[in-house]
Amino acid sequence: MEIRVVENLLKANEAVAAQTLERLAKHGVRAINMIGSAGSGKTALLEATLPRLRESLGVAVIEGDLQTTRDAERIDRIGVPVVQVTTGKSCHLPPQLVLRALDGLDLDAIDLLFIENVGNLICPSEIPVGEHHKVAVLSTPEGDDKVLKYPMLFHLADAVVINKIDLLPHVTCDVGRIRSDLEQVGSRAQIFEVSARTGEGLDGYIGWLLGLVG
Ligand SMILES: Nc1nc2c(ncn2[C@@H]2O[C@H](COP(=O)(O)OP(=O)(O)OP(=O)(O)O)[C@@H](O)[C@H]2O)c(=O)[nH]1
Ligand SMILES: [Mg+2]
Fold it and tell me: Is pTM beyond 0.70 here?
């Protein structure tokens, strides 16, 4: 019985995500679901990449957090359209709230829409929000054992951004181990080693993002 309930819930989420995809398609928008632990640097990556992406693309952000509009304020400060979704107690962005958030954006002006999920490696991986691509954000201070511990995200991700490489001299993290664990979970992701703080490695990630827009 319980299994049926969970299945129905997942199906309901998928149906709403499909509505979002349909709406985005009408306006030619590609959407990226950014998933990573709290503090891995999802917002910092947006702050570092959006000013360059908007030179050639229309960009916008949907920010998901349990509480506060802090991340949306950071995006607003760089002058990029943003809608904040606060999820209350939910540890992931529910697709229903993402669909509603589209009403706050001028979709005709957007080529690439970033959806920053709630900081969490587990639930956001299971619940689609109407994205075309998943980007997993992992940072070096989290350690090099996360891929095998949370394989679902890394199995599904189209790109894995290993952030905070500027901290490698100070933390225990073997990037080679992350790469070989990604192979082990059958990842097809493009891997980028970057620092949102210094800008190192961002050219490759930005090039990949630009390539997503036809
Ligand atoms: N040294 C260093 N610090 C970074 C880097 N990227 C982000 N940070 C710092 O890490 C902290 C967390 O960054 P955020 O961008 O807020 O992380 P987040 O993933 O958006 O966090 P949540 O929204 O809470 O899930 C901040 O203090 C950033 O300044 C980096 O590449 N190097
Ligand atoms: Mg954030």
Answer: yes
